[in-house]
Amino acid sequence: MQLPNAFVDMMKPLLGTAWPEFEASYDRTPQRGVRIDRWSVRADDPSRPPILQAVSRHLQGQVPWMPFGFYMDEESVLGKTVYHEAGAFYIQEPSAMAVALAVDPKPGERVLDLCAAPGGKSTAIARLMNNLGRLVANEIHPTRVKILAENLERMGAAAAVTNESPGALAKAWPASFDAILVDAPCSGEGMFRKDPEAAREWSQDAPAACAARQKDILRSAVKMLLPGGRLIYSTCTFNPMENEQIVAWMEDELGLVVEELPNWPLWSPGRPDFADGRIALSKTRRLWPHLAEGEGHFVARLRKPESATTNAYASLDGGRRSRSGRERRGEGRSVGGARGTGTKDWQNWLAEVYECPDNAIKTPILHKDIYFSDELAGLAVDGIRVLRPGTPLARREGNRIEPLHGLALRGLPKHFFNVKPLDEQAAIRYMAGDALANDEGLRGYVAMEHAGLCLGFAKAVPGRVNNLYPKGWRKQGLISLST
Ligand SMILES: C[S@@+](CC[C@H](N)C(=O)[O-])C[C@H]1O[C@@H](n2cnc3c(N)ncnc32)[C@H](O)[C@@H]1O
């Protein structure tokens, strides 16, 4: 492929004798990857059914650094199947899979993914916490945040979704998170092979402009970290200005300390010589496409000292609010407890659905929708644009409570609903929005299931099953893997 001349002039001296190999990697086809999240790939996980043979046929061996990541054929149709729509897997560039491993989130932790759309890393972080953490996935862009919310719902990932600038969040949530991921907007040099458009859009000035923006985002991020918390920084660019030099800047200006990342197979240490020579930079990691099957990537993890005080970070620039009209934030109000009247009905309903005492259910109602969430509990949300406080579970329609799609994808409590097993063809018709026959004489809300995956709900009436698959999710022409 044709690389920009200025990019070649910059990379040649950085790579030295490795340049010919690096250049030759652009003639190889980029590898596609898939993260299997719903089916077990591990023998020690009895709760998850094994990967379907039909899906396995499209996998081409494991991504060496990701236990549940696989390569897939270039021509693979996995993304157009009912398994994809039901959240069994997430199609993700293989090197990007390492980032959630660097976050290393633990159940119970509070984690912020600050630049989260379309959700590749957020969905992996939720999975690594077994959906038992408090994940907030934020995206500044108003259209991309909707895609983020949909992907989180599809993957059944427990997370709140916000649509804010890092500066506005930093003002609202000082010293609040155990871990923060900044998967930064960058000059994208690592993506040229996969996305030739990125090469055409690149300019010599892009890295410096991106580095300035990255610093702004990081100044906000550091304020939101708890003392002892970790900041994970990643880019998909080769440029030292946006990688090692940003990490050195974080040590010097933000008082963070670089930590050693695991030695993922085929990844290389970061390059101290790309910045000021400090040895600590070799604790960061780079993926070079001539050394591993994946696109160019950089990952670093830094720790905020236990002794850090909130005041020490208050004077950093970058805490500007993006929108006026957010000035009336005050002390803040929390989402996270039941409010309003008529809570008892849904509390009983959910307690029955989840077979737990009703006082164990802490779920906010926004308008008519009930969410399963305490992701935002304890965080001030006045003036913060919250797209979703958690997983949408049910909608109150008058006296009725209707299950929502998120409940199906979040791991359905099967004992509560009748289950209608579908073969793959019927599942394809269901996801296209067709009504299905009711030969079993079912009544009421029914969970539709295929291959151990809950696909969504329907409402059974005499003679047929009315399709409740959400209109915006319906897809014509999904492809069968069994033919
Ligand atoms: C590399 S992408 C994130 C990819 C995502 N983490 C994933 O794994 O799917 C960077 C994101 O940062 C967002 N962004 C752009 N400018 C930003 C800014 N000034 N502050 C915060 N986020 C920004 C972009 O809209 C984009 O969604």
Automatic annotation (TrEMBL):
Keyword Methyltransferase: yes
Annotated S-adenosyl-L-methionine binding sites: 115-121, 139, 183
GO biological process: methylation
InterPro entries hit by this protein: Methyltr_RsmF_N (IPR031341), MeTrfase_RsmB-F_NOP2_cat (IPR049560), MeTrfase_RsmB-F_NOP2_dom (IPR001678), Nol1_Nop2_Fmu_2 (IPR027391), Nop2p (IPR011023), RCMT (IPR023267), RsmB/NOL1/NOP2-like_CS (IPR018314), SAM-dependent_MTases_sf (IPR029063)
Renumbered residue ranges of the record's region Disordered: 310-341
Lipid metabolism is among the record's keywords: no
CDD domains for this protein: AdoMet_MTases
Residue numbers annotated as active site: 236 (nucleophile)
Compositionally skewed regions (Basic and acidic residues) per UniProt: 318-332
Record domain SAM-dependent MTase RsmB/NOP-type: where: 22-305
Keyword terms of this UniProt record: Cytoplasm, Methyltransferase, RNA-binding, S-adenosyl-L-methionine, Transferase
GO molecular function, one term: methyltransferase activity
UniProt record similarity statement: Belongs to the class I-like SAM-binding methyltransferase superfamily. RsmB/NOP family.
Protein name, per record: NOL1/NOP2/sun family putative RNA methylase
